Amino acid sequence: FLRTTYTMKVFLLSLLSVSLCHALVPFIDGGKGMPKMYDSYFNDQLAKQAATAIGKAVSAGKMNIQVEFPPVPNVEEVKFGTPLNQKFGKKIAPDLKMKYLPGSNLSRNLIAYSNVYWAKRFAGALKGGALGGKPVGVLSAEQVDFTDVKNMGDLSRSGKINTDKARKEGRNGEAIICINPGGEETWPRLVSAHGQPNCPFVVMNNSYSTSYDLGNKKGFEEAYYLKRISKGFVFRSFPGPWEAYLEKPDGTVELLESYKTKPKLREAAELVRETSFKRYAMDNDRWMSGRM
To answer: Can you tell me the distance from the alpha carbon of 140 to that of 202, in angstroms, rounded to the nearest whole number?
Structure first.
């Protein structure tokens, strides 16, 4: 009897250990599939997914990289300061060693400083991991005063895009994260101005697209890409496929299509929009359902 009881306990503990491992594995690299909106901004899923994808792209020899996702949850309403915006501002404030208060630089320029926060989170993937020594600089075209940020983490320097100072401070072997760099036709010139030979150059969270399509047409690897479209999202995490997701009325998402190569924006958008209408008619509206 005692031997049977002991064996049963060992078996149950083994099952528990396996369950815990399966539960923890997705949190190591963020897991597969589109990050959960908007919990992923607060539980580090998005940060881990993107950093993992960037690291894999660099390991695969991709030096010119695009990273694109909404820098704050509910980014469309950021100027109004929704509860989700405020919650995220309060989350990142201690990490940057800033204060999130009414009228503060962080609250007034939440997108700009949020992008600095994300650059900090991704720097480790560019410097070569925990033991890597590659310097990582961050350059921005946004309304951000880097002297406000008291904790730059793994970022070795900061500056403004296309300034003489930023060019002169470049270091050999330095990886660069370029925030909101402008139209993609300027990206190769930015690499020439600020990049170093055979070093990663990441363009991150451009505020607009001049190609009016998914990703870019300048050969930058879309290592991590999350774009909201009507009734859903398009997602890609290197080296995985491109995916089109339907956002349901309850806020959950469903994978509708996986593409081996980058689809046209029109193709993915039509699929998601038509599926939404067939299933829910006019009853799938995030604005009306309070998912803000």
So the answer is: 12
